[in-house]
Design a protein that fits this description.
The protein is an alpha/beta fold. The protein has helices at residues 3-22, 76-88, 108-118, 132-135, 157-160, 181-185, 211-215, 240-246, 248-261, 270-277, 321-326, and strands spanning 65-70, 96-103, 123-129, 167-171, 175-177, 195-197, 199-200, 230-231, 235-239, 282-283, 312-314. The N and C termini lie far apart (51 Å). It holds the Pfam family Glyco_transf_8.
């Protein structure tokens, strides 16, 4: 073989390798079993709501449990596992509606097909989030993954979901439930609370903001009249009607605009929520967010459960259970996530 021909073949091989490595990995998922309502579940009929927005009454029903999640290719494996866990532990799984939010740049058709394939019976809608709405307000944080515009979609749920949806449970994609989500959805928000979430008052709240924030005589008074505590925004019960009435999206955007002028925090989408809501939320039992299982934002080291009962396990932090399992370096608690993993592996045998 001539040297010239060998060089041509090597060049073609190099191009082929680059094309393969640049191609997105297509993940295929198994179909989940269908889950049915228990006999005492409320019946949802067209008379449940006065709004005629959706084709099916359940999408506007007050008797349904409305769940909102983001959806993207990077976290689709976690999202599918989370949905399965919600349905499997629900006493009324047919009364659950999922409201998924995907960015305008995502392949929404492919994401919708993935969900439909694994859950052909599921009532869900995919809403398109125009990320340009928030991209101009995002400041860099300590971890690039936190800067993804889709992380900020939770601030825009009141605008994205139809007005007939008055209450929603927001869930991150890196968690599983081991309890009935209806219990969480039924959280009493009282007379005026906009959202509910587990509070962690032992956390060092001041660490979530910079010295520039605390040294500013005006900004430092933000929490003066509140008993402000840290809460994790990956699990929240939100009254969307009160959110809309109070224009809370605009309030969050105001703090993000402030961050553009003065660096007052380091962590992505969390601090604006704390600035607006900390000390004003309805506290929820810690069992509903055993968070931090993904370790810190730098190394993603293994962590143990917090003391007490568990209804929801949350792999917030850098380490995700599917990535650690694939790498052959799982943490002990990742074994609790794996039974909900519907990824179809190439060599899997049908059981």
């Amino acid at each position: 073989m001539s040297q010239h021909l060998l060089l041509i073949l090597l060049s073609l091989l190099f191009i082929l390798i680059n094309l393969i490595s640049a191609s997105p990995i297509i993940q295929k998922f198994k179909e989940a079993p269908q889950f049915y309502n228990s006999p005492d579940c409320p019946i949802i009929d067209p008379g449940d709501d006065d709004d005629d927005v959706a084709a099916k009454p359940i999408f506007c029903s007050r008797r349904a449990v409305h769940v909102a999640m983001t959806l993207d290719a990077a976290y689709i494996r976690g999202s599918v596992a989370a949905v399965l866990s919600v349905l499997q532990h629900s006493s009324c799984p047919e009364n659950i509606v999922f409201h998924f939010v995907a960015s305008a740049s995502a392949d929404a058709s492919s994401l919708r097909s993935t969900v439909s394939t694994s859950f052909p019976y599921l009532d869900f809608t995919v809403y398109i989030f125009n990320v340009s709405t928030v991209s101009r307000l995002i400041s860099s944080s300590i971890r690039s993954a936190l800067d993804c515009p889709l992380n900020y979609a939770r601030s825009y749920l009141a605008d994205l979901l139809p007005p007939c949806v008055r209450r929603v449970v927001y869930l991150d994609s890196d968690l599983i439930l081991v309890d009935d989500i209806a219990k969480l959805a039924a959280t009493d928000l009282g007379r005026d609370s906009v959202l509910a979430a587990p509070e962690y008052c032992n956390a060092n709240f001041t660490s979530y903001f910079t010295s520039a924030f605390w040294s500013n005589p005006t900004l430092s008074l933000t929490f003066a009249d509140r008993k402000a505590c840290y809460f994790n925004t990956g699990v929240m019960v939100i009254d969307l009607s009160r959110w809309r009435e109070g224009a809370y999206t605009a309030r969050i955007e105001e703090w993000m605009a402030m961050q553009k002028r003065i660096r007052i925090y380091q962590l992505g989408s969390l601090p604006p929520f704390l600035l607006v809501f900390a000390g004003l939320i309805k506290p929820v039992n810690h069992r509903w967010n055993q968070h931090g299982l993904g370790g810190d934002n730098f190394r993603g080291l293994c962590r143990d459960l917090h003391p007490g009962p568990v209804s929801l396990l949350h792999w917030s932090g850098k380490g995700k259970p599917w990535a650690r399992l694939d790498a052959g370096r799982p943490c002990p608690l990742d074994a609790l996530w794996s039974p909900y993993d519907l990824l179809q592996t190439p060599f899997a045998l049908d059981s």
